[in-house]
């Protein structure tokens, strides 16, 4: 049996009374509720509970006494700790008072020391000045006597001290009257220049040896001499020796400045001034000479190479200037570098845009002329206000054949190679313009280049080809006409896409934020509209030729006996030969239109061609009279035409041929069913006169008195 204390320890935290009782009962012999080795004994369990309760009471009293003892001890220690804290506070207060007294005493002593120092300085400064004045007077007397006896002037190792003395004597000598001290002033000046020369030589020698410390000492001494600027010049000249061994002057300059920048900071007291002077020297000598040599040799002889060199040199110079901004060159280094660049290129940039335009004009004309020469073509002059122009306007507006058409033998006089060359030259011009133009002149210069592109590409090439193409379109009644204008349309469309891409990619960024944008867009719109008028005119006349060719096929191939066969019992129900040839021709032309155009233009042109095709067939069918079997053949022809109409992929054209097919049913339907057919879905909305006209084409119209069905 466990004691209460042991049982407490065996219980899990937190304490649970029910669990505690269960453990006690389980550990008591005969106390188990489910039987086991011994039977359940309530008396023994009660006795065990009573004994355990007594033990718990004793344990409680024991713990309570221990708690009271610990509480008493805690109160006693708390009082002792409080007394210790009070003692420490009193000690701290006393120490703080002592510290304040010590601080006041230190302040008092410091004040006295400062006052004493001021008094000593007030006495010592005049004394030092007097000593310095006496020393200078001694040296001055040596110059008066004409004999320099002092070691400082004769010992080369004391050149630094001698320089300090002679610099001060030189300042004093300048205040003396010339008539009485001319000789001594000359001697001092001579010694001044002699020491200055020796210091510069010493600096140069130290620079050659790479002795940075000695260079720094000499530069500090020379700082108060007039020859300090000469010392800087010598340093700049000497550090460039051997720096330009390669052919790339820009890369050599960047490496030189990178190397010198660190050394300048160690040697000179104002490194930013020295570095700026070095860069100015390089720009005004090395770079300017390099630019002049490169540009002057090609300016007269090779304008193309001159413009390329100018662009390359200016680009590399500005890139070099960007690298140099990482060095300390003073407060406004960007303005400083911009002025250096302007001084080099100003004479070239002033005439740049005129040379660019002259070159682009000459180069574009040469590209075009070389192309026309390769075609053995003598370009026709495009005069304004002439009889020829009046004829062309009448031709465009009326489609009247004013004179014979030109045979181009299938040549479109458009070349993608020519266009690519023109656009490439213009792209290079835009790039140079962007780099070389002043920001205020950039939009104006870019616009002038754009006008040259319009002149040579759009007018001299595309517009000229359209003029030739229009002149080459045969009349509508020509036989076996070759229609090359659609090839012109296809190539002109491709070329204009390239032109539009360059407009957006290269011109727009240069003018997008300037008033020139409006002018450019207006000019582009004007050119587009001008070409669209000629394209529309040419397409319209080409469609007329297509319809004329169909009409010629029908006129030569279609016979009156096709629809009134002599032996109606021995006729094959199939389309006529004329219909087959027309359908083949139409399919070929539809395919040509699809290849020549893109986007909505395909549907627009095919719609117009389909409407004219339908009109031609409609008028053609009304020229014949039809027997019953002939009507079936006409329906076969129209069905074949309708198949060709499906190739157009235009709902309107297909609808027109569906209606025409329904009209042809009037040629074969029984007389009693005419009214019913005319009331059908496809014919009910047509004009009654049109329906009547088709019925009149029947051979049996008069015999069967079919006119009464329309009364």
From TrEMBL:
Keyword Metal-binding among UniProt keywords: no
Coiled coil recorded as keyword: yes
Domain Exocyst complex component Sec10-like alpha-helical bundle, first and last residues per copy: 161-709
GO biological process terms on file: exocytosis; Golgi to plasma membrane transport
Coiled-coil regions listed in the entry: 46-73
Keywords annotated in UniProt: Coiled coil, Exocytosis, Transport
GO cellular component, one term: exocyst
Residues spanning the membrane: none
A Pfam family per the record: Sec10_N
Domain Exocyst complex component Sec10 N-terminal: 42-151
InterPro entries hit by this protein: Sec10-like, Sec10_HB, Sec10_N
Family that this chain belongs to: Belongs to the SEC10 family.
Matching PANTHER family: EXOCYST COMPLEX COMPONENT 5 (PTHR12100:SF0), SEC10 (PTHR12100)
Protein name, UniProt field: Exocyst complex component 5
Originating organism: Oncorhynchus mykiss
Lineage: Eukaryota, Metazoa, Chordata, Craniata, Vertebrata
């Amino acid at each position: 049996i466990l004691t209460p204390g042991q049982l407490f320890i065996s219980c899990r935290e937190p304490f649970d009374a029910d669990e505690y009782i269960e453990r006690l009962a389980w550990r008591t012999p005969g106390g188990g509720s489910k039987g086991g080795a011994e039977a359940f004994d309530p008396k023994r369990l009660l006795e065990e509970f009573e004994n355990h309760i007594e033990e718990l009471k004793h344990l409680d009293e024991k713990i309570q006494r221990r708690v009271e003892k610990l509480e008493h001890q805690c109160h006693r220690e708390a009082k002792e700790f409080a007394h210790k804290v009070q003692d420490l506070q009193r000690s701290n207060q006393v120490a703080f008072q002592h510290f304040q007294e010590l601080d006041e005493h230190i302040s008092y002593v410091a004040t006295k020391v400062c006052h004493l120092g001021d008094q000593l300085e007030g006495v010592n400064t005049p004394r030092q000045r007097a000593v310095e004045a006496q020393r200078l007077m001694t040296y001055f007397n040596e110059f008066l006597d004409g004999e320099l006896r002092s070691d400082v002037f004769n010992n080369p190792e004391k050149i630094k001290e001698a320089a300090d003395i002679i610099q001060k004597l030189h300042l004093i000598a300048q205040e003396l009257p010339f008539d009485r001290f001319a000789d001594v002033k000359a001697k001092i000046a001579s010694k001044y220049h002699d020491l200055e020369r020796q210091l510069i030589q010493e600096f140069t020698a130290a620079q050659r040896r790479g002795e940075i410390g000695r260079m720094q000492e000499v530069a500090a001494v020379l700082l108060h001499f007039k020859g300090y600027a000469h010392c800087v010049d010598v340093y700049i000249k000497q550090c460039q020796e051997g720096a330009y061994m390669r052919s790339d002057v820009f890369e050599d300059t960047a490496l030189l400045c990178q190397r010198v920048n660190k050394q300048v900071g160690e040697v000179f007291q104002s490194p930013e001034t020295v570095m700026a002077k070095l860069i100015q020297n390089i720009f005004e000598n090395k770079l300017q000479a390099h630019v002049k040599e490169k540009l002057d040799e090609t300016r007269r002889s090779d304008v193309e190479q001159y413009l390329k060199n100018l662009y390359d040199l200016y680009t590399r110079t500005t890139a070099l200037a960007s690298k140099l901004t990482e060095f300390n060159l003073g407060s406004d280094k960007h303005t400083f570098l911009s002025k250096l660049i302007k001084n080099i290129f100003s004479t070239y940039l002033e005439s740049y845009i005129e040379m660019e335009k002259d070159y682009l004009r000459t180069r574009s004309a040469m590209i075009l002329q070389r192309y026309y020469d390769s075609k053995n073509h003598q370009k026709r002059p495009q005069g304004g206000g002439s009889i020829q122009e009046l004829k062309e306007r009448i031709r465009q507006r009326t489609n009247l054949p004013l004179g014979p058409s030109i045979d181009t033998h299938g040549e479109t006089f458009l070349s993608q190679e020519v266009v690519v060359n023109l656009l490439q030259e213009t792209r290079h011009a835009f790039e140079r313009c962007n780099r070389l133009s002043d920001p205020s002149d950039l939009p104006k210069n870019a616009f002038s280049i754009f006008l040259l592109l319009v002149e040579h590409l759009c007018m001299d090439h595309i517009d000229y080809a359209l003029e030739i193409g229009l002149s080459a379109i045969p009349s509508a009644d020509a036989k076996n006409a070759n229609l090359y204008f659609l090839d012109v349309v296809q190539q002109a469309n491709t070329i204009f896409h390239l032109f539009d891409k360059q407009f957006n990619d290269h011109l727009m960024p240069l003018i997008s934020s300037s008033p020139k944008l409006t002018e450019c867009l207006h000019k582009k719109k004007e050119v587009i509209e001008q070409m669209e008028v000629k394209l529309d005119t040419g397409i319209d006349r080409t469609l007329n030729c297509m319809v004329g060719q169909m009409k010629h096929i029908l006129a030569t191939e279609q016979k009156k006996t096709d629809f009134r066969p002599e032996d109606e019992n021995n006729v094959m129900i199939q389309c006529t030969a004329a219909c087959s040839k027309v359908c083949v021709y139409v399919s070929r032309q539809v395919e040509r239109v699809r290849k020549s155009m893109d986007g909505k233009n395909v549907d627009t042109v095919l719609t117009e061609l389909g409407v004219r095709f339908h009109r031609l067939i409609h008028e053609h069918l009304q020229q014949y009279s039809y027997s019953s079997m002939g009507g079936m053949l006409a329906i076969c022809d129209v069905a074949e035409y309708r198949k060709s109409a499906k190739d157009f992929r235009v709902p309107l054209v297909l609808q027109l041929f569906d209606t025409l097919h329904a009209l042809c049913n009037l040629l074969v339907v029984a007389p009693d069913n005419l009214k019913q057919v005319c009331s059908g879905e496809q014919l009910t909305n047509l004009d009654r006169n049109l329906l009547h006209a088709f019925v009149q084409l029947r051979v049996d119209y008069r015999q069967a008195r079919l006119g009464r069905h329309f009364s």
